[in-house]
Amino acid sequence: MVKLIDGKAIAAKLETRVARGVAELATQQRLVPGLAVVLVGADPASLVYVNRKLVKTKAVGMRSIEHRLPAETCETELISLIHALNQDADIHGILVQLPLPRTINANRVLDTIEPTKDVDGFHPVNVGRLSTGTGGLTPCTPLGCMMLLDTVVSDFRGMQAVVIGMSNIVGKPVAMLLLERGCTVTVTHILTRNLSEITRTADIVVVAAGSPGLVRGDWIKPGAVVIDVGINRVIDADGKSQLVGDTRTEELGHAAATTPVPGGVGPMTIACLLSNTLEAARVSAAMHHGAKVAADMTSAA
Ligand code: GUN
């Protein structure tokens, strides 16, 4: 049997670490991290995610501020709200749930978020920081994928990594992270020819295609590690609704390790969001502390 990487347990450990960090900030800096979550419309999957984020945020001791806006909200209104959140010193992280209604240009909205509060890591400044390896906030799902890989891979240098999917949320940023660790990275997508031939060369496969059961056993080299980012709702033979990934786990017996769906990458995304929010709050506390020291020095002079 292939080793299943327990994302739920690894996420729980990270959440415990975040909760400890939150408690430290409260005692040492009198600061409670605040995460604003903005949801436009009522996409059913988005509602599930947003509710889960709210519950987890509170569980680690952070403040959660929710803005639910009607589907008819116009871009200008949404951008005004983001400007207000950018200015609010009690808000350390801002997350705009995607997808946004088609009437709103998502890129223009994401460009408005103050990069130091961009806990999704989608602002062009953070995208640029990731691609130049110069810090910034890293997108949550790719960060979660790397943490799961870290439990089974000790040295990535020289490994062949194949990413299936080229989205801004997963495919592109996870490719950058793998590259940064020394992998030789191939990014494949819907137009890629001979996909299975490419995946067969991989030591690591990260699949974020949104295509149930896409990756078959014979696509995978013996001993490879497969990270399944897919979350697909399908109706099984008994007419029951079920969540499945982008791989056929039952065909991966010869792989070294893979992630289950549910219970693999999914729980890591929210844990990494909390971790990014803590990080943003710490940076904000350090900046204010620095500014205060400078002001004290000025007034003492
Ligand atoms: N929709 C699907 N994944 C994500 C994510 O990571 N962040 C946000 N904001 N929306 C999403």
Explain this structure.
The protein has helices at 7-29, 44-59, 75-87, 106-112, 124-132, 140-150, 171-180, 195-199, 265-300, and strands at residues 3-4, 34-40, 63-69, 93-96, 160-164, 184-188, 204-207, 225-228, 232-235, 241-244, 257-258. The chain is an alpha/beta fold and 301 residues long. The chain folds into two domains: 29-114, Rossmann fold, CATH 3.40.50.10860; 140-265, NAD(P)-binding Rossmann-like Domain (Rossmann fold, 3-Layer(aba) Sandwich), CATH 3.40.50. A six-stranded parallel sheet has the order 1-11-8-7-5-6. Strands 3-2-4 form a three-stranded parallel sheet, with helices on both faces. A two-stranded antiparallel sheet has the order 9-10. It starts with a strand and ends with a helix. The model has no long low-confidence stretch (mean pLDDT 97). Bound molecules: guanine (GUN). Guanine (GUN) binds at residues 95-98, 120, 140-141, 169, 269.
Give the topology, please.
Blueprint: E1 3-4, H1 7-29, E2 34-40, H2 44-59, E3 63-69, H3 75-87, E4 93-96, H4 106-112, H5 124-132, H6 140-150, E5 160-164, H7 171-180, E6 184-188, H8 195-199, E7 204-207, E8 225-228, E9 232-235, E10 241-244, E11 257-258, H9 265-300
Parallel strand pairs: 1-11, 2-3, 2-4, 5-6, 5-7, 7-8, 8-11
Antiparallel strand pairs: 9-10
This protein binds guanine (GUN).
